[in-house]
Every structure is written in structure tokens, then in C-alpha cells.
Design brief:
It comes from Panaeolus cyanescens. This is F-box domain-containing protein. This protein is of the alpha/beta class. The protein contains 9 helices and 13 strands. It folds into 2 domains: about 40-155, no CATH class; about 195-295, no CATH class. Strand 5 (about 120-130), helix 5 (about 145-155) and strand 6 form a beta-alpha-beta unit.
Amino acid sequence: MSIEESVLPAELILQVMGHLHDVADKNTLLSFSLLGKIFQKDAQRRLFSSVELQYAIANPSLIQDVSTKAGNFLRTLNDNPKLAEYVHSFTLCLLDWSGWSVHFRPGATVYTILPQLTHLSTFSITGTSKRSNDVYWSSESLPVKLLQLVEMTLRTRNIESLSLTAPLIFPTNFIASCLTLKNLTLSTDSFRFPLHAVSPDIQAGPPIYLTSLVLQTGIRHRPTYMADFIAFFNPLLCPLSLSRLTCLDISGCKASFLNNLLTLLSICPHDLQTLVLPIPPGGMFILWSNLETLLIS
């Protein structure tokens, strides 16, 4: 195996380099050059492992890149397409979302970047909104092309962690498309009843077994959000299952959420191992004989 193909840990290489004193020696300089390639590849993996693209309102009806980061990243991918394989985590951040007719600028970088990220395991959509009422992520408020692109990405990548915390009501298919999903983070702004049933081919497929569920209180208060959330676990609407859930985190919820805590816990398995709550739960946690961690935030 050549030095270029070496998988030696960076710490060991640093120790070897620490014993090299005569840097004027030609062979030593050559060694440094070859080692540099190893450091370069490792640095690229670290640098491109996680990517966040931010988009903001340019005018009342147009979303555009909020900085040059997305454009620079796209140019980097064009120069070295292999770097796309290093990206395992992608975050789409929508800032100051407002209005019902918000559209991405034609040719927005997200349309070109997202299809190239074929090794994603974590996908997130975050953001802020200026609206006090519900905003739907739908073909009426976003171009169908972006809707289909996100759904295709979630369905064709091995997404294990999905986070939907932007103040938008997302299509049920976004979650149902993640056939390898294990970790789900939702805001109470992210769902609302009645939910649209998923497509028949997804209904006919196997259940999606979650192992970790994180629930956060959104910016809008809605008395029915608990019932809306429970509806997610109706197999006719979305094939999610909590039967293998080991971690439930609701520390990001308001204290009033605990009024519905028993309703939520009633659909959780008894082999739950980690439970994270915003305030002490009294003696309710004794229902889980396998509970290993109880955290109070």
C-alpha cells in the first residue's frame, strides 16, 4: 500500500513528523509532500461532512441565497465533484419566511446542489417566519420542482436522521419517504390535522421504525397539536411506528405540553430507555422497567 493510500491516524503521523528535523533533506521534503495529501483528504472529509445553505427573502415574493456560501460551494463541487461524497449532513435554512406565494429564484443553487449529494444520512429544514398563522409547504407556496426534489432526496438517500423544525407544515410524504429513518425531530408547527394520506406504494411498504423522537414547541400555539401529532402514527396516514423507540426527548416543549404527556406516553413502548422532560414527571417514569436515563432540562 502506497503512502498516498495510507489510513494512518493523523495523531500518529504528527508524532512521526515531530521526529523529522532535517527538512532540507530531499527525501524528507518528499515525505512531507506525500503526507500532505493524507492531511488534505482528511481535512476535506471534515470540512464537507456537514453543509448548511441559507436562503432569505429578497423581496415580498422571492427567496434567494442569503450569502455567497452556496455559490462558492457549488463552484467547489463543479471543480471537484468527488467532494459531494463527503457530505453526510445537509441543512436547508429558510430565513424570515412570509406570505403564501414565496418562490425560490429561478436557478437557485439548491436545485443544482441537492441532486449531487448522494451520501446523505442527515437532512434538516430549519428557519424563521414572520407570519403568525400557519404556512404550508405545498405546491401553492413553493415551486413543485423543489417539493419533488426534496421528496426524491429523502426517498433515494439512506436518511437516518430527519429534522423538520422550520415553522412550516410539511407534507406527510416528507417523513414517509425516509424508509431508513431512525431519528426524527419535529416542531409542533410542522404538522396539522387533517393530514393527507401517503401514496399507496408507501402504505403498502414496511413500517418506519423510529428509535429516537425529539419534539419541540413551535412559535404558534394550537390546542389540537397533540391530536395532530398522534395522527402521525396512523398507518393509513404515515407508516411511522414507535414500537422500537428507545429515546423520547420533549425537553424543548413548553410545560403546558405535559398536560398531554400521558397521551403521548401511551403510544410509547415499555422498553423506552431514555426520557428527557422539561420538568420533573413525578412517578410516571416507573412505567418503564428498562428506563436507564431520565433527564430533566
